[in-house]
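Morning F.,

Quick status update on the modeling queue. The single chain you submitted on Monday has been processed. Sequence for confirmation:
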Amino acid sequence: MQTFHASLQQASSNGANAPLVLGKSLVLDLGNFPELNWLPDYLAALHSLQVERDRITADISAIEQEGDIYRNQWIEPYTKTKNGKPYTYYQVRWLTGEYKKSGQPKVKTQHLSHKAVGEARAAIARGHQVMALERERQHVDEQIARLRQFVQGIGRRMKHARSLRP
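Structure tokens below.
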């Protein structure tokens, strides 16, 4: 036997003299309703997906706490020659989203000191990690949406079947 508990909630957001809804627990004996045997599996799958989404969100927050995040940036070395001797410098570059008259994309540049190169590389690595986790979270959100659409479809079919009964 499955027991589903619903908490008391105000029907309106202001809370003043609003009736309480969902005030009682629902007790379902799934043995009497074999067409609902999927319900515990659905709730377990939905819960595990929501837990996974929360874990990913926590991981993203932890990475964001570590420091700067450079998402769509890269480091380019360039060489200058002074007094016949080559020196290597580094710069962080990123696309601005704008285009020049020639059709080429505009690129912004920030020159780095030798000390800042390591920090910039770490920020770029964090950016890659965050982007990968965001893609993963989006995938989980899509799975949750598909699961909910599936259940809504079942609800519509059950409602339609009820309306066809004489």
